[in-house]
Amino acid sequence: MVKKVLLGLALIVVVFSLMGCQTVQGLGGDIQWTGEKTAEMLEGE
Fold it and tell me: What is the pTM (predicted TM-score) of this model?
């Protein structure tokens, strides 16, 4: 159940990220930011 919720949230984030950035450079920045925040969450910061 938890995996389904996390998968759904990840899908929502991806969809809004794609809608929010209009350039390839913007997409790269969004991916980098998402990766950094995910790493912070996993480290417990």
Answer: 0.42
